[in-house]
Predict the 3D structure of the following.
Amino acid sequence: MSKRALITGITGQDGSYLAELLLGKGYEVHGLIRRASTFNTSRIDHLYQDPHEPEARMFLHYGDLSDGARLVTLLNEVKPDEVYNLAAQSHVRVSFEEPEHTGDTTGVGAMRLLEAVRMSGIHCRYYQASSSEMFGATPPPQNEETPFYPRSPYGAAKVYAYWVTKNYREAYDMFAVNGILFNHESPRRGETFVTRKITRAVARIKAGLDQHVYLGNLDSIRDWGYAPEYVEGMWRMLQADKPDDYVLATGGNFTVRDFVVTAFEHAGLDWEKHVRFDERYLRPTEVDALIGDASKAQRQLGWKATVQTDELARIMVDADIQVLEHAGRPWIDTPALPDWSAPVAAR
Ligand code: NDP
Ligand code: GDR
């Protein structure tokens, strides 16, 4: 019998890679999608099969994390073995403009899903997409023992979701885990996050379509890894013997400026001619430095990031150039990843 997974946020960057990974492992994959007036499934269209086909293994269901009753009916219908809660209003800057909505979706949404699991009486394993933004102002390196000090409505909502996940584990003996993931990016990254904004601008400037890109704070430090590797880590957390919380990160550190320089240089462009400042992209409170220590995940799950930030920047620039040159969709093909069945030292 194949395992059955339910993914909230399946239309997002991580949801699309996770769906691919699980289908590759023989899972039946169910995804929660929001009803929209336009199509919002471009990241997973290549995985879609007509549900009438007998071999179909991916199914999409309408729903929303703001609708608790729907989550109960859906869980009863799907009866998943594993639930991955990836849905969120995930943009930190936007969370200052929409704090209440962010709290409702990113924070209370996780509680609604946990409560729906409990009420439906289904015995499943639960993954919560927690974030390095929870560490906020606490200086690096950050690991599972580092105190939280969120610096945005988004970070605060993720702290709430983290604690309710832990509470349901302790109160109801649920197999519920927090993956505390540092920034991870890819050619499928949303266009308003800084890495993709930069690599997309590089491609457009190179093609002569734009002259400038407007950015905010170039001094913040982030630990940027490659998203396809991180969804493997999520899956590994749910295969462990015991539920626990894990940091996933590369351990590297790069400023936004370093990322800009690497991306522009890779395309043979001088960044100083093209990058301009716009204060609208500053945040009322910034997170200055996030650098993760993922040694627990390496020790206990055999997980280790192999793509460092400079290589990631080049992958993303190449993909965005390819999109423009070939009007194609390079995100469909995930480049070969390490052999995850091999011990870490052998990779
Ligand atoms: P995206 O922003 O790409 O995807 C978010 C997903 O959530 C989309 O599928 C979106 O649907 C869905 N969603 C938003 N609001 C709701 C709602 N009310 N009900 C149901 N679905 C909703 O995020 P990522 O893939 O980058 O991240 C996945 C998760 O991991 C998020 O929770 C994020 O906060 C967290 N995270 C991400 C990190 C990163 O670096 N990428 C690092 C740490 C944590 P739609 O397509 O319709 O908008
Ligand atoms: P982050 O990602 O806030 O770390 O959250 P983002 O790419 O938005 O910002 C990273 C850093 O870049 C600076 N910056 C800009 N950011 C954006 N978006 N646009 C700009 O023009 C710009 N100029 C400078 C920011 O100030 C910041 O310091 C991401 C999200 O995926 C979260 O959901 C996730 O939880 C965390 O990563 C870990």
